Amino acid sequence: MVKRPAKPGEVPEHVVKVLVKLINTYNKYHAPEAVARLEKVESLNPENDLYLIRVRFKGSFCATCGVRDWVEDLAYLGESLGIEAKLEEVVEPEGVEDERVGYFIVKVPNPAPEARA
């Protein structure tokens, strides 16, 4: 079956599916200390399969680990799903101690690789 290409600015269905699987896998291994929620996916360069994602992390995290490490783990976990991901920025929302927002540049090949996790 041939899938129609995404319109400019639209995020292809295969990208959304693999990113949802990434978030679910992260939560499987990190909850309840940290729970991730995919908030936004933006197409940066669909010809090169590049996307910007915003993920909100909420939890107590681990006091002995750096909070950034908890956020960065999402990128490392992506490798097991065939996703190249680079953490660009971590933002601490003002007045909220138990949340962080991570901005990642991700490359999700088309077709998306079969998840091994």
What key phrases describe this protein's structure?
globular; single chain; 117 residues; four-stranded antiparallel sheet; Threonyl-tRNA Synthetase, Chain A, domain 2; alpha+beta
Please describe what this structure looks like:
It contains 2 helices and 4 strands, in the order αββαββ. A hairpin with a 4-residue loop joins strand 1 (35-45) and strand 2. It has a single domain (13-107), classed as 2-Layer Sandwich (Threonyl-tRNA Synthetase, Chain A, domain 2). It has 117 residues and is α+β, with helices and mostly antiparallel strands. It is 27% helix and 32% strand. It has a 4-stranded antiparallel β-sheet with strand order 1-2-4-3, covered by helices on one side. The mean pLDDT is 84.
Report the end-to-end length measured between terminal Cα atoms.
26 Å
Mean pLDDT: 84
Helix count equals 2
* Poorly predicted tracts of residues: none
Q: Briefly note the CATH topology name.
A: Threonyl-tRNA Synthetase, Chain A, domain 2
Global structural class:
alpha+beta
Q: What string gives the helices and strands in order?
A: HEEHEE
Oligomer: single chain
CATH architecture: 2-Layer Sandwich
